[in-house]
Amino acid sequence: LDILRELHGSLLCDFVRTRRQLCKKTLSVYYFNSMNYDYPRQMLLSILRQVFKDELTIDNNDDPDYYMQILRKRMRRVLKKTCVVIMIDELDHLYYKCPVSFYSMIEFFNLSYIGFVKIGISNTLNFVSHVSGTFTLLNIKFLVFKPYTVAQLNDILLDRITEATAGSELNWAELISPSALELLVKKVISNNSSDVRFLLSCISDAVAN
Question: φ, ψ for residue 90 (rounded to 5)?
């Protein structure tokens, strides 16, 4: 919601400047999860297939620049009739998986067209510093949200565990002690992370074993 509120402000400026054109356009929103890809070129290919309906195969070319050239040509044509929003989740996965060719994703986010919005999401706290120190960021704005505190993570996990054991004879305190829960949270935060999903996975594995 915070991301959308921030975007609303910037999109509103574009809308006011080009209201006559944008009012005639439809809005298309696409979601991609980077965990489904090993290389940036695969992500770009998937965008071409879904957004621009290109019948390209992964064997066409291993160079991400090839797909970026096609994307630029297609984008101008599509944006004449449609406003496009592309959301890419777990963006840090592609960076750490293939840092050498991640420049192509930065080039993608640096594309600047009215009516074309790109949103990248990363749960890694030091991802922004790594990227901004390595690549030229021209048309990219960062929204950095403070990580959860120990108390907040404890509350979130307690709510999830309580919800999971509701209606059963199990008491969540019998599954994991409050002190063990707090120790787990502190350990994860010390590793520069506050990923709730990872914590839940740790608790699930502990209970299963």
Answer: 55, 45
Residue carrying structure tokens 């901004």: 132
Q: Comparing C-alpha atoms, which of 69, 96, 85 is closest to residue 25?
A: 85
**Extended strands (E) in 68-150:** 82-89, 116-120
Contact 181, 158 (CB under 8 A): yes
Q: Where are the beta strands (DSSP E) in 109-175?
A: 116-120
DSSP 1: -
pLDDT average per 10 residues of sequence, the chain (209 residues): 50 48 73 92 89 66 84 84 89 87 87 86 80 75 80 84 72 71 80 72 74
Map tokens 């195969």 to a residue: 57
- The three-state secondary structure class of 191 is coil
Q: Which letter does DSSP use for residue 176 in this model?
A: S
Contact 189, 147 (CB under 8 A): yes
Write b or e for each residue in 115-129: b if 16 or more Cβ atoms lie within 10 A of its Cβ, otherwise e: bbbbbbebbbbebbe
The DSSP call for residue 10 is H
Question: Are 37 and 46 contacting, i.e. CB atoms less than 8 angstroms apart?
Answer: yes
Strand spans (E) along the chain: 26-33, 82-89, 116-120
